[in-house]
Amino acid sequence: MNNQAVGTIVDEAINYGQRGWRVFPAVITSQNKKFPAVKGWKEKAACEALKIKELFTGKHTAIGMATGKSSGVTVIDVDMKDGKNGFLTLERLGITLPPTVCTLT
């Protein structure tokens, strides 16, 4: 077992903010549906620690990240659906992705 201390979700959000990633609180339901926990999240998403602490005072279970043109962050969602592996499909098409941050959702 890993004996490293695990930070709170707010600590992790601040860590993301320090990378320049604009974050907001999100909620994951028991059906694994994800949605923002604050109205106006596109405008409220922040990377400054103080603003993040203010945003993450309500009910939340996850960290959302603003992506797209306004954030300078591009996301490629590669899925495994209907028994088809999206990564293998990209490989067969000759598309290679650069080394990057990855996450499981």
In short:
The chain is of the alpha+beta class and 105 residues long.
Overview of this protein structure:
There is one protein chain. The protein is of the alpha+beta class and 105 residues long. Helices cover 27% and strands 16% of the residues. The strands form two sheets. A three-stranded antiparallel β-sheet has the order 2-1-3. Strands 4-5 form a two-stranded antiparallel sheet. The model is unreliable at 1-5 (pLDDT under 50).
SSE order and pairing:
Blueprint lengths: L8 H10 L4 E6 L5 E3 L4 H4 L4 H7 L6 E4 L14 E2 L2 E2 H7 L13
Antiparallel strand pairs: 1-2, 1-3, 4-5
Instruction: Determine the mean pLDDT.
Output: 87
Give the H and E element order: HEEHHEEEH
Distance between the termini: 23 Å
How many strand units? 5
Radius of gyration: 16 Å
Helical percentage: 25-40%
Largest sheet: 3 strands, antiparallel
Label the overall shape: globular
Spans of at least 5 consecutive residues whose pLDDT stays below 50 are 1-5
Counting DSSP H or I runs of 4 or more residues, the number of helices is: 4
- Strands of the biggest beta sheet: in what spatial order? 2-1-3
Structural class: alpha+beta
Tell me the strand percentage band. 15-25%
